[in-house]
Protein backbone atom coordinates (compact mmCIF):
# COMPACT_ATOMS: atom_id res chain seq x y z
CA UNK A 1 0.00 0.00 0.00
CA UNK A 2 1.21 3.58 -0.59
CA UNK A 3 2.79 5.35 2.37
CA UNK A 4 1.67 8.84 3.35
CA UNK A 5 3.58 10.09 6.42
CA UNK A 6 6.60 12.37 6.29
CA UNK A 7 9.32 10.22 7.91
CA UNK A 8 12.49 10.38 5.84
CA UNK A 9 13.99 7.12 4.67
CA UNK A 10 16.40 5.73 2.12
CA UNK A 11 14.85 4.17 -1.02
CA UNK A 12 16.08 0.71 -0.02
CA UNK A 13 13.58 0.66 2.85
CA UNK A 14 10.73 0.85 0.31
CA UNK A 15 9.98 -1.88 -2.17
CA UNK A 16 7.73 0.11 -4.47
CA UNK A 17 6.62 3.42 -5.89
CA UNK A 18 2.99 3.86 -6.96
CA UNK A 19 2.14 5.67 -10.21
CA UNK A 20 -0.95 7.86 -9.89
CA UNK A 21 -1.91 7.92 -13.56
CA UNK A 22 -4.98 10.16 -14.08
CA UNK A 23 -6.53 8.92 -10.82
CA UNK A 24 -8.31 12.27 -10.48
CA UNK A 25 -9.86 11.76 -13.93
CA UNK A 26 -10.61 8.02 -14.32
CA UNK A 27 -12.67 8.77 -17.43
CA UNK A 28 -9.39 9.83 -19.10
CA UNK A 29 -8.09 6.31 -18.60
CA UNK A 30 -11.03 4.77 -20.43
CA UNK A 31 -10.94 7.23 -23.32
CA UNK A 32 -7.16 7.26 -23.68
CA UNK A 33 -6.58 3.51 -23.55
CA UNK A 34 -7.94 2.89 -27.07
CA UNK A 35 -6.09 5.65 -29.02
CA UNK A 36 -2.94 5.00 -26.98
CA UNK A 37 -3.12 1.28 -27.82
CA UNK A 38 -3.62 2.06 -31.52
CA UNK A 39 -0.72 4.53 -31.54
CA UNK A 40 1.47 1.97 -29.79
CA UNK A 41 0.60 -0.76 -32.32
CA UNK A 42 1.14 1.68 -35.21
CA UNK A 43 4.52 2.76 -33.82
CA UNK A 44 5.71 -0.80 -33.22
CA UNK A 45 4.39 -2.13 -36.54
CA UNK A 46 5.64 0.75 -38.70
CA UNK A 47 9.11 0.80 -37.14
CA UNK A 48 9.42 -3.00 -37.28
CA UNK A 49 8.38 -2.96 -40.96
CA UNK A 50 10.95 -0.28 -41.71
CA UNK A 51 13.72 -2.20 -39.92
CA UNK A 52 12.88 -5.50 -41.64
CA UNK A 53 12.68 -3.83 -45.07
CA UNK A 54 16.07 -2.13 -44.69
CA UNK A 55 17.62 -5.34 -43.33
CA UNK A 56 16.33 -7.63 -46.07
CA UNK A 57 16.55 -5.29 -49.08
CA UNK A 58 20.18 -5.09 -50.26
CA UNK A 59 19.56 -1.89 -52.24
CA UNK A 60 18.79 -0.08 -48.97
CA UNK A 61 22.14 -0.92 -47.36
CA UNK A 62 23.28 2.69 -47.55
CA UNK A 63 24.23 5.28 -44.90
CA UNK A 64 20.95 7.23 -45.02
CA UNK A 65 18.91 4.08 -44.38
CA UNK A 66 21.22 2.99 -41.56
CA UNK A 67 20.36 6.29 -39.85
CA UNK A 68 16.66 5.55 -40.38
CA UNK A 69 17.21 2.13 -38.79
CA UNK A 70 18.82 3.74 -35.75
CA UNK A 71 15.87 6.14 -35.40
CA UNK A 72 13.42 3.22 -35.60
CA UNK A 73 15.33 1.26 -32.92
CA UNK A 74 15.22 4.29 -30.60
CA UNK A 75 11.48 4.73 -31.22
CA UNK A 76 10.79 1.07 -30.43
CA UNK A 77 12.81 1.22 -27.21
CA UNK A 78 11.09 4.42 -26.05
CA UNK A 79 7.63 2.95 -26.71
CA UNK A 80 8.44 -0.31 -24.91
CA UNK A 81 9.87 1.59 -21.94
CA UNK A 82 6.76 3.70 -21.33
CA UNK A 83 3.54 2.64 -23.06
CA UNK A 84 3.06 -0.99 -21.85
CA UNK A 85 3.26 0.12 -18.21
CA UNK A 86 0.78 2.96 -18.84
CA UNK A 87 -1.66 0.54 -20.51
CA UNK A 88 -1.32 -1.90 -17.61
CA UNK A 89 -2.29 0.94 -15.25
CA UNK A 90 -5.26 1.86 -17.45
CA UNK A 91 -6.53 -1.70 -17.86
CA UNK A 92 -5.63 -3.49 -14.63
CA UNK A 93 -4.72 -0.68 -12.17
CA UNK A 94 -1.18 -2.11 -11.85
CA UNK A 95 0.28 1.07 -10.37
CA UNK A 96 3.23 -0.35 -8.35
CA UNK A 97 6.73 -0.10 -9.81
CA UNK A 98 9.93 -1.14 -8.03
CA UNK A 99 12.62 1.41 -7.23
CA UNK A 100 15.13 -0.20 -9.56
CA UNK A 101 12.59 -0.38 -12.42
CA UNK A 102 11.59 3.23 -11.81
CA UNK A 103 15.13 4.59 -11.96
CA UNK A 104 15.92 2.38 -14.98
CA UNK A 105 12.87 3.76 -16.80
CA UNK A 106 13.98 7.28 -15.87
CA UNK A 107 17.42 6.67 -17.36
CA UNK A 108 16.18 5.03 -20.56
CA UNK A 109 13.64 7.80 -21.21
CA UNK A 110 16.14 10.62 -20.78
CA UNK A 111 18.93 8.81 -22.61
CA UNK A 112 16.92 7.66 -25.61
CA UNK A 113 15.07 10.97 -26.06
CA UNK A 114 18.46 12.71 -26.17
CA UNK A 115 19.74 10.05 -28.61
CA UNK A 116 16.72 10.65 -30.84
CA UNK A 117 17.36 14.39 -30.87
CA UNK A 118 20.99 13.74 -31.80
CA UNK A 119 19.92 11.31 -34.55
CA UNK A 120 17.67 14.03 -36.02
CA UNK A 121 20.74 16.27 -36.10
CA UNK A 122 22.85 13.72 -37.99
CA UNK A 123 19.99 13.12 -40.43
CA UNK A 124 19.64 16.87 -41.00
CA UNK A 125 23.37 17.00 -41.76
CA UNK A 126 22.91 14.07 -44.18
CA UNK A 127 20.21 16.01 -46.07
CA UNK A 128 22.36 19.16 -45.99
CA UNK A 129 25.27 17.38 -47.68
CA UNK A 130 22.96 15.62 -50.16
CA UNK A 131 21.34 18.87 -51.33
CA UNK A 132 24.05 21.50 -50.82
CA UNK A 133 27.07 19.35 -51.79
CA UNK A 134 25.66 16.50 -53.91
CA UNK A 135 28.95 15.71 -55.69
CA UNK A 136 30.77 15.28 -52.38
CA UNK A 137 27.98 13.28 -50.74
CA UNK A 138 29.39 9.77 -51.49
CA UNK A 139 32.78 10.72 -50.04
CA UNK A 140 31.38 12.44 -46.90
CA UNK A 141 28.38 10.30 -45.90
CA UNK A 142 29.97 6.86 -45.82
CA UNK A 143 29.45 3.72 -43.75
CA UNK A 144 32.39 4.83 -41.60
CA UNK A 145 30.70 8.21 -41.04
CA UNK A 146 27.49 6.49 -39.89
CA UNK A 147 29.45 4.18 -37.56
CA UNK A 148 31.27 7.15 -35.99
CA UNK A 149 28.01 9.12 -35.75
CA UNK A 150 26.29 6.17 -34.01
CA UNK A 151 29.16 5.90 -31.50
CA UNK A 152 28.93 9.64 -30.85
CA UNK A 153 25.14 9.49 -30.40
CA UNK A 154 25.33 6.62 -27.93
CA UNK A 155 28.39 7.84 -26.00
CA UNK A 156 27.36 11.48 -25.62
CA UNK A 157 23.84 10.82 -24.43
CA UNK A 158 24.48 7.65 -22.41
CA UNK A 159 27.16 9.42 -20.36
CA UNK A 160 25.41 12.79 -20.08
CA UNK A 161 22.16 11.30 -18.73
CA UNK A 162 23.70 8.87 -16.22
CA UNK A 163 23.68 11.46 -13.36
CA UNK A 164 19.90 12.00 -13.66
CA UNK A 165 18.77 8.66 -12.12
CA UNK A 166 21.84 8.54 -9.85
CA UNK A 167 21.00 11.94 -8.32
CA UNK A 168 17.40 10.81 -7.76
CA UNK A 169 18.36 7.39 -6.35
CA UNK A 170 20.71 8.89 -3.73
CA UNK A 171 17.97 11.04 -2.18
CA UNK A 172 16.18 10.26 1.06
CA UNK A 173 12.45 10.05 0.57
CA UNK A 174 9.58 11.01 2.83
CA UNK A 175 7.30 8.04 3.33
CA UNK A 176 5.01 9.19 0.58
CA UNK A 177 5.84 6.95 -2.34
CA UNK A 178 3.06 7.96 -4.74
CA UNK A 179 4.33 9.52 -7.99
CA UNK A 180 1.83 11.94 -9.52
CA UNK A 181 2.60 10.80 -13.04
CA UNK A 182 2.18 7.83 -15.40
CA UNK A 183 5.95 7.44 -15.70
CA UNK A 184 9.04 7.86 -13.53
CA UNK A 185 9.96 11.35 -14.67
CA UNK A 186 12.88 12.82 -12.73
CA UNK A 187 11.03 15.88 -11.45
CA UNK A 188 7.96 13.84 -10.42
CA UNK A 189 10.09 11.37 -8.45
CA UNK A 190 12.59 13.75 -6.87
CA UNK A 191 9.90 16.06 -5.46
CA UNK A 192 8.83 13.19 -3.15
CA UNK A 193 12.18 13.53 -1.38
CA UNK A 194 12.67 15.36 1.89
CA UNK A 195 16.19 16.35 0.73
CA UNK A 196 17.14 19.46 -1.23
CA UNK A 197 16.55 18.59 -4.91
CA UNK A 198 18.02 21.77 -6.41
CA UNK A 199 20.97 19.83 -7.87
CA UNK A 200 18.60 17.35 -9.57
CA UNK A 201 16.56 20.10 -11.16
CA UNK A 202 19.61 22.14 -12.13
CA UNK A 203 21.41 19.22 -13.78
CA UNK A 204 18.35 18.14 -15.76
CA UNK A 205 17.79 21.73 -16.90
CA UNK A 206 21.42 22.28 -17.96
CA UNK A 207 21.83 18.86 -19.59
CA UNK A 208 18.48 19.08 -21.37
CA UNK A 209 18.97 22.54 -22.82
CA UNK A 210 22.65 21.93 -23.61
CA UNK A 211 21.95 18.75 -25.62
CA UNK A 212 18.45 19.26 -27.01
CA UNK A 213 18.90 23.02 -27.40
CA UNK A 214 22.20 22.76 -29.28
CA UNK A 215 20.78 19.96 -31.46
CA UNK A 216 17.75 22.06 -32.38
CA UNK A 217 19.85 25.12 -33.23
CA UNK A 218 22.16 23.09 -35.50
CA UNK A 219 19.16 21.35 -37.13
CA UNK A 220 17.55 24.73 -37.78
CA UNK A 221 20.76 26.07 -39.36
CA UNK A 222 21.07 22.96 -41.54
CA UNK A 223 17.55 23.40 -42.90
CA UNK A 224 18.14 27.10 -43.49
CA UNK A 225 21.10 26.21 -45.71
CA UNK A 226 19.00 23.49 -47.36
CA UNK A 227 16.16 25.94 -48.05
CA UNK A 228 18.59 28.42 -49.55
CA UNK A 229 20.05 25.71 -51.81
CA UNK A 230 16.57 24.52 -52.88
CA UNK A 231 15.54 28.03 -53.87
CA UNK A 232 18.62 28.19 -56.11
CA UNK A 233 17.59 25.09 -58.08
CA UNK A 234 16.61 25.89 -61.64
CA UNK A 235 14.66 22.66 -62.18
CA UNK A 236 11.29 23.31 -60.55
CA UNK A 237 10.31 19.64 -60.20
CA UNK A 238 13.54 18.88 -58.32
CA UNK A 239 13.04 21.92 -56.09
CA UNK A 240 9.45 20.94 -55.27
CA UNK A 241 10.45 17.35 -54.48
CA UNK A 242 13.35 18.43 -52.25
CA UNK A 243 11.19 21.04 -50.51
CA UNK A 244 8.40 18.52 -49.89
CA UNK A 245 10.76 15.90 -48.42
CA UNK A 246 12.84 18.26 -46.27
CA UNK A 247 9.76 20.26 -45.25
CA UNK A 248 8.02 17.19 -43.84
CA UNK A 249 11.23 16.18 -42.03
CA UNK A 250 11.63 19.64 -40.49
CA UNK A 251 7.97 19.78 -39.39
CA UNK A 252 8.36 16.41 -37.66
CA UNK A 253 11.50 17.60 -35.85
CA UNK A 254 9.69 20.78 -34.78
CA UNK A 255 6.81 18.65 -33.49
CA UNK A 256 9.26 16.50 -31.50
CA UNK A 257 10.82 19.61 -29.96
CA UNK A 258 7.62 21.65 -29.54
CA UNK A 259 5.67 19.01 -27.64
CA UNK A 260 8.65 18.69 -25.26
CA UNK A 261 8.79 22.48 -24.83
CA UNK A 262 5.02 22.66 -24.19
CA UNK A 263 5.38 19.91 -21.58
CA UNK A 264 8.12 21.89 -19.81
CA UNK A 265 6.11 25.13 -19.89
CA UNK A 266 2.93 23.47 -18.60
CA UNK A 267 4.96 21.84 -15.83
CA UNK A 268 6.35 25.26 -14.83
CA UNK A 269 2.87 26.84 -15.01
CA UNK A 270 1.14 23.92 -13.32
CA UNK A 271 -0.88 26.19 -11.01
CA UNK A 272 -2.68 27.62 -14.05
CA UNK A 273 -3.01 24.31 -15.94
CA UNK A 274 -4.70 21.06 -14.98
CA UNK A 275 -2.02 18.73 -13.52
CA UNK A 276 -3.18 16.02 -15.93
CA UNK A 277 -2.15 18.05 -19.00
CA UNK A 278 1.66 17.80 -18.59
CA UNK A 279 1.26 14.11 -17.66
CA UNK A 280 -0.69 13.50 -20.88
CA UNK A 281 1.87 15.41 -22.96
CA UNK A 282 4.70 13.44 -21.36
CA UNK A 283 3.07 10.12 -22.31
CA UNK A 284 2.15 11.22 -25.85
CA UNK A 285 5.68 12.50 -26.44
CA UNK A 286 6.91 8.90 -26.20
CA UNK A 287 4.47 7.46 -28.75
CA UNK A 288 3.29 10.06 -31.32
CA UNK A 289 6.75 10.86 -32.78
CA UNK A 290 7.50 7.13 -32.77
CA UNK A 291 4.35 6.50 -34.83
CA UNK A 292 5.00 9.38 -37.25
CA UNK A 293 8.76 8.98 -37.81
CA UNK A 294 8.69 5.78 -39.94
CA UNK A 295 5.80 7.16 -42.01
CA UNK A 296 7.36 10.55 -42.74
CA UNK A 297 10.99 9.42 -43.01
CA UNK A 298 10.37 5.94 -44.40
CA UNK A 299 7.17 5.36 -46.32
CA UNK A 300 7.41 8.73 -48.09
CA UNK A 301 10.85 7.71 -49.36
CA UNK A 302 10.40 6.11 -52.79
CA UNK A 303 13.17 3.54 -52.35
CA UNK A 304 11.74 2.28 -49.06
CA UNK A 305 8.23 2.19 -50.48
CA UNK A 306 9.50 0.06 -53.38
CA UNK A 307 11.42 -2.16 -50.94
CA UNK A 308 8.26 -2.79 -48.86
CA UNK A 309 6.23 -3.61 -52.01
CA UNK A 310 8.98 -5.96 -53.20
CA UNK A 311 8.97 -7.84 -49.88
CA UNK A 312 5.15 -8.07 -50.00
CA UNK A 313 5.28 -9.49 -53.52
CA UNK A 314 7.91 -12.02 -52.43
CA UNK A 315 5.73 -13.07 -49.50
CA UNK A 316 2.67 -13.44 -51.72
CA UNK A 317 4.58 -15.49 -54.33
CA UNK A 318 5.96 -17.80 -51.62
CA UNK A 319 2.48 -18.20 -50.17
CA UNK A 320 1.17 -19.30 -53.54
From TrEMBL:
The chain crosses the membrane at residues 34-56, 68-92, 104-125, 145-167, 206-230, 242-265, 277-299. It is found in: Membrane. SMART domains: 7TM_GPCR_Srsx (SM01381). InterPro entries: GPCR_Rhodpsn (IPR000276), GPCR_Rhodpsn_7TM (IPR017452), Olfact_rcpt (IPR000725), OR51/52/56-like (IPR050402). Keywords: G-protein coupled receptor, Membrane, Olfaction, Receptor, Sensory transduction, Transducer, Transmembrane, Transmembrane helix. GO terms for cellular component: plasma membrane. This is G-protein coupled receptors family 1 profile domain-containing protein. It comes from the Eukaryota. It is a multi-pass membrane protein. Residues 46-297 form the G-protein coupled receptors family 1 profile domain. It comes from Vombatus ursinus. One of its GO terms (molecular function) is G protein-coupled receptor activity. The keyword Transmembrane applies. It holds the Pfam family 7tm_4. GO terms for biological process: cellular response to lipid. The keyword Transmembrane helix applies.
Amino acid sequence: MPHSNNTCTHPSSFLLFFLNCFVRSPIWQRWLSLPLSLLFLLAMGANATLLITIWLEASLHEPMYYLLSLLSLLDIMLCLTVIPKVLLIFWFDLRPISFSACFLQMYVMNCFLAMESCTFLIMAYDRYVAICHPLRYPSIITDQFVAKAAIFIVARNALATVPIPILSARLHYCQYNVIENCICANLSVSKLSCDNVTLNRLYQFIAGWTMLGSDLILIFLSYMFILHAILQLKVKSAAVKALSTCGSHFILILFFSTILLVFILTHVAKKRVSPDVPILLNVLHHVIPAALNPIVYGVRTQEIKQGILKLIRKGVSKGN
